[in-house]
Amino acid sequence: MDSLSVANLKQRPLRTAVSMAGVSLGVVLVVLMGGLTRGMTRDAAGRQSNVDAEIRFLPGGEISITTSNPLMLSARYAGAIVNGVKPAPENPGVEPKPPVAAVAAATPVGQYVQTGAGAIGFEMVDGIDYASFKDVTSIKIVQGRPLGSGGDEQTAHEAIVDRFYAEKNLGLDNKPIRIGSKIKVLDQPFTVAGVYEPPMLARVKIPLKTMQELFGGADNCSFVMVKLKDREPVDRVIETINDYYPGNNVIPTSEIPALYSQGLFAVDVLLDVVVGLSAVISGLVILLAMFTTITERTREIGILKSLGASKRLIVTIIEREAALISAMGVVLGFVLSAIGRYSIQSSTRLIVDLDIKWLLIGGLIGMAGGVIGAFYPAIRAANLDPVEALSYE
C-alpha cells in the first residue's frame, strides 16, 4: 500500500511539489515567527538583566517595558538612595532621610523605544550618566572613549554602542560603523564616541542630559539601578527603600526578563493568529491537491473498488498520500526556516531562535493540516459508485 501511495505521488511530480511548498509555507510562518519572537525577547530581556545592579527603582503605577513618556521618575532618587536627603536653603521643609546603608551605588537611566534602523522592528535607546553608570555595571569601553556628560556642545550629541550594533549597522554615510561615525538616534545625528562590552540594556547609549533636553528638559529618568554592597539581602534592602520612598515600584533585577516577556501580550496574540493561519493554509493546500487528484483518478478508484477494495482501504490510501506530502512539506519547511534564519540574522539586527517548541508546533500543524485537509476528498473517493467510476473519462 505504501508503494502505491509513493507511485501515485511520483506520477504527478508537479502537483506533489506544489503541495509540499504549500505545507512548508505554513511551517515556515510558524517557525520563523515563533523563533523571531523568542529570539528578540530573550535577547532584549537578557540585556535588561545583564547588569551588576541587583535592584531597579521605577515610578509608581503599572510596570511597563514601554511608555509614551520615557522620563517619569526624578533622577534625584539615585543620589537620595546613596547619600540620603537633607533640608536645603531652597527647600527647607523637605523630610530628612538617611542613606540606605546597604547600597553601594545608584545610577539614573532614561530609556526610550524607537523604530529600528530601516524601519525594521524597534530598538531601545538609553540615556545614562556614565560616571555613575560604570559604578553599578561592568561596562568596559573596548574602542574609542567613554561617553561624556552631555553638558557641553562637544559631548551633547555623542553616543556609545555595543559591539553587536557596530558590526551589524551602517552609519549615516552607509559605511561600517567606526569611531567618529554618525548614527541617527531620536531623529538626531549622533557621533559614535566609543564601543562597549558586554551588551546591556539598550545597544545605543547617549547622555541622560541630552535625552532629558530632547523630552522637555526636566531632571527625570525612566528608572534607577541600585547596586548593593557585598552579600546584602535584596529583599531587606527593597523593604527599606519602600519605607523611605513609598509609592514607587522597587523590584529585583532578576525579575526583569519575566516582566519583559509578560509585556509582549500583543506579540503572543499575533503568534496565535499565525499558527491558526498556517493550519488553514496547510489544510486548504492538501484539500485542493487531493480533491483534484481524486477527480483525475476516478477511473483508477473504480478499478480498485471493482477488485474488492473497501471504503476503508480507499480512505487509507488517500490519507497516506496526504501524510507523505505533509511530511515532505514539513522537512522542506524546516530547511527553508534554517535558510531564512541565516538570511535574517546576516542582513539585519534581528535574532531568530529555532526553538524546539516552535519546530514541534510547526511540524504538528503541517501534518495535522494535511491529514485533516485530505479527509473530505478521501471520503468522497470512498463513496464513488464503482460502475460510474469505471465509465468516467
Overview in brief:
The chain contains 14 helices and twelve strands.
Morphology:
elongated
Oligomeric grouping of the chains? single chain
Rounded radius of gyration (Å): 30 Å
Number of strands: 12
Order of helices and strands: HHEEHEEHEEHEEEHEEHEHHHHHHH
Uncertain runs are none
Structurally, the number of domains stands at: 2
Helix and strand composition category: alpha+beta
Q: For the residues shown, what is the average pLDDT?
A: 80
* Beta-strand content estimate: 15-25%
Major sheet characteristics: 10 strands, mixed
| Helix proportion | 40-55%
Distance between the termini: 25 Å
**How many helices does DSSP assign?**
14
Secondary-structure map:
Elements: H1 2-11, H2 13-49, E1 55-58, E2 73-74, H3 76-83, E3 103-115, E4 122-128, H4 130-136, E5 140-144, E6 158-162, H5 163-168, E7 182-185, E8 188-197, E9 204-207, H6 208-214, E10 220-221, E11 223-228, H7 234-244, E12 249-252, H8 256-262, H9 265-296, H10 298-306, H11 311-347, H12 356-373, H13 375-382, H14 386-390
Parallel strand pairs: 4-9, 6-8
Antiparallel strand pairs: 1-11, 1-12, 2-10, 3-4, 3-11, 5-8, 6-9, 7-8
